[in-house]
Amino acid sequence: MNALQSALQAALHERDRQHTRRHLVPMERQGGSLLRQGRKLVDVTSNDYLGLADHPLLRQRAADWTERYGTGARASRLVSGTLPLHTQLEEKLARFKKSEAALLFASGWQANASLLPALSHLSRQQTGHPAILFMDRLNHASLHHGCLAAGLRQVRFHHNDLAHLETLLDRHADQKGLKFIITETVFSMDGDRADIPALRALADRHGAFLYVDEAHATAVLGPGGCGLSNGLADITMSTASKALGGMGAFVTGSRALCDYLVNQASGLIYSTALPPACLGALDAALEIVPSLEAERLHLQHQASRLRQRLNDAGWKTGPSSTQIIPVMIGDSETALHVARSLEEKGFLSIAIRPPTVPPGTARLRIALESRLSATTIDQLGDALLDSLRSVTPR
Question: Which residue, among 68, 131, 91, 121, has the nearest Cα to 275 in the 3D structure?
Answer without folding.
Answer: 68
